[in-house]
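EI: anyone free to look at a 212-residue chain?
SC: sure, send it
EI:
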Amino acid sequence: MLTQDACWSINSLSITDENAPLVPAVIVFGDSIVDPGNNNAIKTIAKCNFPPYGLDFAGHKPTGRFCNGKIPSDFIASKLGVKGLLPAYLDANLEPQDLLTGVSFASGGAGYDPLTSKISHVISMNDQLELYKEYQGKLRTIAGERRAENIISKGLHVVCVGSDDIPNTYFLTPLRKTHYDIPSYANLVVSYASSFFEILRFLPKDAVVQES
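SC: here you go
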């Protein structure tokens, strides 16, 4: 989930011209809350590309989303007039034109703590940043330098992660618990989060919405 203020802000927006989206693209980093199917493309048990997932989609077809239907990133992209569903960057069926309006790099099971992603064999936050850099290169090839820079700088960047670190990495394994109590582990997670945003802020972007 996004912060309450962010949710209210997005929910208060109204689209008067469906051909004029409020932002050119939505770009997402995070965990299962906003993973539309990236985990389908990697070797991990953290998948949901099977029934009953996808129950609310046409044909009851699972997409890899950890949900019966749309996930928050889909609702954000739709509300902003960008597109109805925000695709996974690693989707094998992704078309070059899909890159123009944004993608999600999120991976179910990821966390700010690199160990969280390692335990689940999913895409870490640092690796999501590497995919983002790759995406920028593809975008420049497809759209040209000027248009790509406009998409990147004016696109909405959403970060939704952190729900797996303490419950999974800290409580379900002894790997961190033997070295940290809860306050010190929380501080460790915050330090990893700070590092992530320190890197992200030096990459071109305009708006960033963070889950808390």
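EI: The first helix runs from residue 4 to 11.
SC: 👍
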